[in-house]
Amino acid sequence: MVADIDLSAATFLLGPEQTFSPDQEKLAQAVMSFVRQHLPLADHAVFVITGDAGTGKSAVLAHLFASLQTQARSGSGALAGTQNTLLVNHQEMLKIYQEVAGANPVLRKKDFMKPTPFINAAHRSGSLTDVTFVDEGHLLLTEPDRYNRFDQTNQLAEIIRASRVTVLVFDPHQVLKLKSYWDWPRLRTVLAPYPHTLFDLDTQFRVHSQAAVQSWINAFTAGTIAPWPVHPGYDLRVFADGTPLYQRIEQQDARYGLARVLATADFPFTVFGPTKWYVTAGTLRLPWDKISMTATPWAQRPETLHEVGSIYTIQGFDLNYAGIILGPSVGYDPATRQVTVDVTRYQDNEAFKKRSDLPDLTAARAQIMRNAINVLCKRGRHGLYLYAVDPQLRAALLAAQAKGEDNGH
Questions:
Q1: What is the pLDDT of residue 100?
Q2: How far apart, in whole angstroms, are the C-alpha atoms of residue 48 and residue 199?
Q3: Burial class (CB in 10 A: 0-12, 13-18, 19+), 34
Q4: SUPFAM superfamilies per the record (predicted)?
Q5: Class (C level, CATH) for 22-201
Q6: CB 223 within 8 Å of CB 285
Q7: Closest CA to 271 of 9, 91, 12
Q8: Rounded to whole angstroms, how far apart are CA atoms 321 and 298?
């Protein structure tokens, strides 16, 4: 386990004082039973862990992997000597896993990899890994990608073929790019040739609030501004300008830590190069985050309080308070009372790279944009602050908040 490490800073792992919920404990037992049952059969079996953002999927996965490696390296028992790997196609999360490995005598940094190096190494050696854990499996590529040196057509299919048992975390509502486009039919097609089982986690851990707030976020992501929820203990607010939102984030960071501003990908940016790109929200103007070669994830670095984080730097991580800037692509139609997304105004060109096997690219792009909103709005444990660039959406949100306050919420 990783109990000796301070995991309070934005990680998705369990802290020293935290324990599993009954559902998480049941999941852990089910995974280990599945591994013990299928590992001797070498039948490429797959255990799929599903659940919404913030339900503790990664926490269980990390715990299970540490437990498995302890048994693999103990020299006794049925799992002794097994060769196991944890994969994640997310650089910031990989940093956390490697940080934990550096402080845990059971784990090694080489235990954690990105999918493409793992797949390419398996093709060269022809050998099978015993158990392969895959975190954020919805980020796996579903088409060739020359930039990532992936030449096959589906990373999950390749991982399963290279593993005796695969344990996969999967949430189609967190798919953020067309080149890693997943839905349930696509997953079922990949799983069909192999023994597999699914386990759904449905208890929310990250968003510390009543179910009403979680339901409000889900409705908003789907396109509806529901009545303002009752939320004692959870700070849900809409701001008429970006500057007071940022000031509130600064105050919360000073008091509690782990408060950051985030935004939808609606403002120009490039990943590499010296140019500094900015996010504007009314009177607020802050720079986008930049790729960092340091071992410390974005959300843990103090200087990032003065930046705006993206879905790529914050996905999978916890904050105490999240201030979300909804950019120009997120609008509102007063006639239908629907929150809209405009795919032509989304600035993440990498997410929208065209592919020929999707029958409705516009619908797929719109779903990716809604997924991004879902990811951003479920970062804050104790509070969510919203500012909408679109004036009609901003007015609708402020009106819903005012009505809720008038009703005593």
A1: 77
A2: 6
A3: buried
A4: P-loop containing nucleoside triphosphate hydrolases
A5: alpha beta
A6: no
A7: 91
A8: 15
Indicate the DSSP class of residue 328: T
Task: State the pLDDT at residue 396.
Answer: 98
Please, are residues 35 and 165 in contact by the beta-carbon 8 Å criterion?
A: yes
The residue extents of the domains of the chain are 22-201, 211-406
| Beta pairing class for 196-201 and 45-51 | parallel
Q: To which H or E segment does residue 277 belong?
A: none
Mean pLDDT in order along the chain per 10 residues (409 residues): 35 54 86 96 94 76 91 88 94 82 86 95 95 95 87 95 97 89 94 96 59 89 93 90 98 94 88 77 93 75 93 84 97 98 89 81 92 92 95 98 79
Cα 14 to chain centroid distance, Å, stands at: 16
Closest CA to 11 of 320, 375, 293, 262: 320
**The residue type at 245:** L
Please report the pLDDT score of residue 272 as a whole number.
58
Distances (CA, A) of 328 to 234, 267, 345: 27, 8, 7
User: Exposure pattern of 40-58 as b/e (b: 16+ CB <10 Å)?
Assistant: eeeebbbbbbbbbbbbbbb
Beta strands at 308-309 and 259-263: parallel, antiparallel or unpaired: parallel
User: Count of residues for the chain?
Assistant: 409
Q: What is the pLDDT of residue 208?
A: 53
| pLDDT score, position 12 | 55
Q: Where are the beta strands (DSSP E) in 247-372?
A: 259-263, 278-281, 284-287, 308-309, 319-326, 330-333, 338-341
Q: Using the structure block, give the residue that is written with the tokens 């493409």.
A: 116
Distance CA 216, CA 384 (A): 12
Distance CA(172)–CA(365), nearest Å, equals: 13
Can you read off the two tokens belonging to residue 293? 């070669």
CA atoms within 13 A on the CB side of 140: 34
Query: Considering only CA atoms, which of 80, 72, 58 is closest in space to residue 10?
Result: 58
Half-sphere CA count of 400, side-chain side, radius 13 A = 22
Extended beta strands in 52-148, E state: 84-88, 112-113, 129-135
Predicted pLDDT at 292: 67
pLDDT of 25:
87
Helices vs strands, H then E, count in the chain: 11, 15
